[in-house]
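Would you mind writing out the residues of a protein together with its fold in token form for me to study?
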Amino acid sequence: MKLPTFVLALLLVLGACGSEDPGVSTEEFAPNVGANETFNNIMIRNAFVLGAPPAVPLAPGSKAPLYVTLISHRAQPDRLLSVQAPAWVSKATIPGGSLELPPGQLVGGGPNPQPLSTA
């Protein structure tokens, strides 16, 4: 191998090894930091409300679905009976009236998430 080809190959390999930039990380992180919480041994993850398109206000009284992943770390099954956010919504409904939370199982989320509440 000629020296210029070797140097070029070495630079390509070293350039692909990574970055010392502190903003670059291989650690997992929630894409919506701040919408994650643990309350009474129930993990609330990746919560978001799907509202109107950007720069378009949601009309008063309109419905907006809440998507969230819940994982119960309680010993016994639990049930989500209501969703409350009085500063933002006056009423929220859960399809079917409630949601079963079996211990240690993911509820919501997945490849085809369904809204767990509509406000």
Observations:
- The chain has one helix and seven strands.
- Residues 9 and 117 are 55 Å apart (CA to CA).
- Residues 3-15 form the longest helix (13 residues).
- The mean pLDDT is 75.
